[in-house]
Structure formats: C-alpha cells, structure tokens
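Hello again, I could really use a second opinion on something today. I've been staring at a protein lately and its backbone has me curious. You're getting the sequence in one-letter code plus the fold written as tokens. I'd be grateful if you could look everything over and explain what you see. No rush at all, and the record is pasted right below:
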Amino acid sequence: MSRRSCGAGLASKTEFEKPLAARVAYELAARLADESSLRAQLCQAAFAQKRCGKGDVVTFSRNVFIPLTNLCRDRCGYCTFAKLPDSPEAKTYALDEVAEVVRGGVATGCTEALFCLGDKPEVAYASHRAWLVERGYHSTPDYLVAACQVAFSGGLLPHTNAGILSRDEMQALRPWNASMGLMLESVSERLYQRGGPHFHAPDKRPEVRLRMHREAGELRIPFTTGILLGIGETPEERVDTLFAIRELQEHYGHIQEVIVQPFHPKPGTKMRAMPPLSDEEFAAWVALARLILGPEMNIQAPPNLAPERLSELARSGLNDWGGVSPVTVDFINPEAPWPTLAALQRATEASGQRLRERLPVYPEWTARREFFDAQVWSRLPRFADRDGYAVRGVIPHARAPLRSCAAGDSPALGRGA
C-alpha cells in the first residue's frame, strides 16, 4: 500500500509522507497545547497513517498482572506502586501465589502473564535480602526467573517489566519470556535534578534506561518502551524522547511497541496537585508519536486512563489498547479500572475499526524467529493463529474492515479527537 495519503488533511502534506523530521516535530509540539485545530489535524493525519501501516485492526492483550514485589529502592514523585517494607500493603508474591494467579488467567482465556515489580529492593532493604536468601535466591531478578518459569510452565507467555536489568539478567529471563519492556519515560536530565520527580530514583536516569534498551536490542529481545506525559517535561523534551526511541528502533529493530501514557496525579504523592493533560492533548500526543515513529510502529495508549474518550482516542493513530485483564487490576493505576472488552469493542467499532486479540508480542513478530529463545519459539504456535493473533482472540460481531488506504485517498474520518 502506498503511504502518500498518510498526511492527507494537513497543510504541508509532503512533510507527513514519512516519519516527521525533528524540525517539524518541535514546531508542532510547541503549538499543540494551545491550538485545538492543530490537534484535530494531527489526529486526522495520524489516523490515516496508522491505517496505511496497520490497516483497520486495533489489538489488545488478555493478561494477568502479577506485581511480583512492590518493594522498590526508587522514590518517584508520582508513584503509589512502591511500598516500604513495614507498610501493611507491602507484598512479595510466593511462587505458589504466582501459580494461583496463572491458573486464573488460563481459566479465563488469558495468554499473557505481565510481571511488574520494583527496582532492586534488595539493595535498599535488608529484610528483602534476607527473604530472598531464605528461599535460595541471591537477587530479585534471580527470583523473577523462577516466577517466569512458573508462569510459562502453567500455560501463559510471560512479559517482564522489572525496571533496570543487566545484560546477564535479561539473558537469564529470555528463555521464559515472549517479550520484555522498560518505559523510557523521558530523556530529560532535568527531571533527575533536585526537586524533580526522579531525584530520589537512581534507576530513572535517562542514560541508565537507554543502556538497557540498547542491550535488549543486542540480545534481540522484543521490547516495549514508552513515554510518560506530564511529569514536568517540556514539549521539546517529549519530542526528544520520541526521537530517542526512533533512533533505537532504527539501529536495533527490536522495539515492538511504544506506550504513550499520561500522568495521573495520585493522592499521597508529591505530585498530587499537578494537573494532568486533558484527554484532547493526550490524544494529540498519541498522534504526534505516530507521525514521528511512522506507520509501521505499534503505538499503544492505555484505555483505562481516558475511559470517556475511547472512540476519539482510537482515531488518534494508536493501533493497540495494551493489556486488559479479566482477573487482576492495574496495580500501577489501581484507581483506573479496565474497561470491559465489550466497551473496548464498541469504542473501536465506533471509530470504524475492528478489535482483535494479540499475544504479548504483536502478530508480525510471531514470524521473527531470531527474536525468540528456542523454547519460547516452540510454544508460540499453541497460542497464535496463522496470522499471529491469539487463537482465542476472535471478538464476536466485529464489523467488516474498511477499505485500505491507497495513493490519493483521503482519511476515513475528517475529524480528530
């Protein structure tokens, strides 16, 4: 399919026939917050570009969320996930508890076990070090390998988001994981300075996070990354973050998806009074991410963080809703419940698209043998159909696809979010 129509509806169409140049992206970002007409045009162009690269399907992954431990040595200014060891909410899952969650996931048709945990709690807390040693483990990543083995053996495909991991730790996890991830969040060094949200978070240093991204690329790991919007960064720094992701993908080819996530202020945090982005601005940044990263990138926006604007968000250039669990809550944003699959389907169809279920890796990735350990590769056919979607992933009553976008076509919808 030609991409020449991917920028239809914008004043300077030729600048949007391929991923944006930095000069154009900076100019657009500077105007985005104040110009509603520009936001609408960006969403229109991004939706057209998404259809050129991804067709009319929007995906999701049916998962169980396993917060293996909510102990963390970092103290981000916006986080309620991390707990201190003496908190009544502090919890580290035993392996039999992991197995119990996995059984619930298998029983409800899930394919993914999403492991999310705090960064290096054994470095900060002697009690957690002792807990690990009593069970025969020398570190949290060492214990994580055992937990992923339990999930894999129990019938799910693990996806691990464990904060900063070393090359050796990722290599040890690779035989048990379909994919891994780390939110880049921001490349702004300012956010790590005194008074910033990452001042007490050594694992949020941009170079540390970029290093892990590069090493995951060298290891050929399907990798999820993302940008966090609204934690004090400037529009220019957001563009810098998206271009850093684009450069990683151009060099290593391992970025399977980019999450565009808005900050949500939470009671009890230092940033509880900081205003979040409006849903309209959030959708426009999803659109700008699409236009910077191009038609082929998988762009995800969490549906539980803008639940009232799903159909408009679906027209902003995303092609994925992320993980949606029938079993567990979003432990990172517990105040934001998942929409039902029926609600997701209605919103997706209202945007003229179809909802399909995927695995922890996207359909096109299930043909990329070099990105998987042999053990995981041999397991994929149990979960995926011939097109790479989840075998159980047919959503009933989905509408027929729209026609594909070819040279000279105009976008399917003439309005943006």
The domain at 19-64+179-383 is CATH 3.20.20.70 (TIM Barrel).
